[in-house]
Design goal:
By secondary structure, the chain is an alpha/beta fold. The protein is globular. The protein has ten helices and seven strands. It binds zinc ion. The site of zinc ion has 8 residues, from helix 2.
């Protein structure tokens, strides 16, 4: 901590995003009390846990993990709200550093080649100004020393012609929301292991769609990592 940041903290103290208590110099984002209260999933087996089970019979994945449990009310919901709707990208950095430092030692996750965020819709990107998992991915990338690849997967944007399609066609369309970026040479990505990341996993439909699209690349392997998991 430099003198300037010390001084800034004196006049503009940083507050815990959960309880609003003033953070000490050693604390970041969440105070020590709230940090101890975080509902951790405590998964140790990454190929067989509740997150991995979501994808059973739907898409083949190598490893899956989520750090926190997401409940209707509580600290995780508050944290994710800060990340998605209050522009607090420190949340992504905080959990990227946390999971990156823990998982880089694990053999399953340490075998990944690329980190891929679930792309957000162009309109949402415009409104929010950032993909809420970008900072999370960038921090993971530093820890894993693997490339964070933001443009391999593209979220298909709704075109005006789709408005006139039948309801059935539109329903089909919601199932295939992502596509590989055709301007990239996917040959380069053959037989690579992709870590697909998102903030929260609930039904797994979005991550499943992303995984299936990436598996169009020959020999692609998929692992999944999210900050939180909805039970
Ligand atoms: Zn607190």
């Amino acid at each position: 901590m430099t003198f300037i940041t010390d001084l800034l903290r004196l006049f503009y103290p940083e507050l815990c995003i959960n309880c609003n208590n003033i953070l000490t110099n050693n604390e970041n984002l969440i105070c020590t009390f709230c940090r101890h209260d975080l509902p951790l999933t405590h998964y140790k087996n990454y190929s067989d846990n509740k997150v991995a089970k979501i994808f059973n019979g739907r898409v083949t994945i190598e490893n899956a993990h989520a750090l926190l449990l997401f409940k209707k009310e509580g600290i995780t919901k508050k944290i994710i709200h800060h990340l998605k709707y209050k522009g607090n990208q420190k949340v992504g950095m905080f959990f990227g550093n946390w999971l990156g430092s823990v998982l880089k030692k694990d053999s399953g996750f340490s075998k990944i080649d690329y980190i891929i965020p679930v792309p957000i819709h162009k309109n949402k990107l415009k409104k929010r100004g950032y993909n809420q998992v970008s900072k999370f991915g960038q921090r993971l990338s530093i820890h894993f020393k693997k490339e964070f690849l933001e443009n391999l997967l593209i979220r298909d944007s709704m075109t005006t012609t789709q408005t006139f399609k039948s309801r059935l066609d539109r329903f089909k369309n919601t199932e295939t929301k992502f596509s590989l970026n055709k301007s990239l040479n996917t040959e380069k990505y053959k037989n690579k292991h992709f870590l697909v990341i998102d903030d929260v996993v609930t039904t797994g439909a979005t991550l499943e769609a992303c995984a299936k699209e990436l598996q169009k690349i020959e020999g692609a392997k998929i692992s999944i990592l999210t900050i939180a998991y909805t039970e």
